[in-house]
TrEMBL record:
Keywords per UniProt: Cell outer membrane, Cell shape, Lipoprotein, Membrane, Palmitate, Peptidoglycan synthesis, Signal
Species the sequence originates in: Xenorhabdus vietnamensis
Record-given protein name: Penicillin-binding protein activator LpoB
Lineage, uppermost ranks: Bacteria, Pseudomonadati, Pseudomonadota, Gammaproteobacteria, Enterobacterales
Membrane as UniProt keyword: yes
Gene Ontology CC: periplasmic side of cell outer membrane
Amino acid composition bias (Basic and acidic residues), ranges on this chain: 32-45
Main location: membrane
Compartments where located: Cell outer membrane
UniProt-listed NCBIfam families: lp (TIGR02722)
Topology within the bilayer: Lipid-anchor
Gene assigned in the entry: lpoB
Free-text function comment from the UniProt entry: Regulator of peptidoglycan synthesis that is essential for the function of penicillin-binding protein 1B (PBP1b).
Keyword hit for Signal: yes
Length: 189
């Protein structure tokens, strides 16, 4: 046993001894960099312009739908209507606030409903914890907001993209039951 211990101790002692190895530093020889002629500068390609947001005449798109909606059966005159903001379900850029304003103006000009003012909608969104950027993508959120505002009807609108053709779809819903009273669609060009 003593022999094994002596051999192990000797091995550890010998392993810890390191002989210093001195190495000469590599010689440094300065050189001049080669001067290569620069390639001629060719005119660069033009940077493509970002896509422009298409300007649409929302009044012309919205007016026929509003006329159809107002001629629907079962509507009571003078009731409170919440015009929900238009949702963009396409992969492009649309000015949906302009679309919402066009819908509101077209309905206001007919003087059939009492439209909930934007200021009340903004205050109600804050009270319900909804940000102003929340487009209320779910109908249930829209109906909840309408109930909070004591609206009788809600107009839910969205723009969709079907096989390259954009459509504006509008649905008039009864707030009490969530029933869709009228639905219409128009091309967005």
């Amino acid at each position: 046993m003593k022999r094994i211990l002596f051999v192990m101790l000797s091995a550890v002692l010998l392993a810890s001894c390191v002989m210093p190895v001195t190495q000469q530093p590599a010689p440094i020889t300065p050189t001049e960099p080669e001067k290569k002629p620069e390639p001629p500068v060719e005119p660069s390609e033009k940077v493509p312009q970002p896509p422009k947001i298409q300007s649409l005449n929302w009044n012309n798109i919205v007016q026929p739908l509003v006329d159809q909606m107002l001629s629907a059966n079962g509507l009571e005159l003078g009731k409170v209507l919440l015009v929900d903001s238009v949702k963009n379900n396409t992969n492009g850029s649309l000015r949906t606030l302009q679309a919402t304003d066009a819908i509101t103006d077209a309905i206001s000009n007919k003087q059939i409903f009492q439209i909930v003012p934007k200021s009340r909608v903004h205050v109600a969104r804050q009270a319900l914890g909804l940000s102003s950027e929340d487009s209320l993508g779910l109908r249930s959120k829209s109906v909840g907001l309408a109930r909070y505002l004591n609206a009788d009807y809600i107009l839910y609108s969205f723009v969709s993209n079907n096989h390259g053709q954009r459509n504006l779809e509008m649905q008039l819903m009864l707030v009490k039951t969530g029933e869709i009273l009228w639905s219409g669609r128009s091309d967005v060009n």
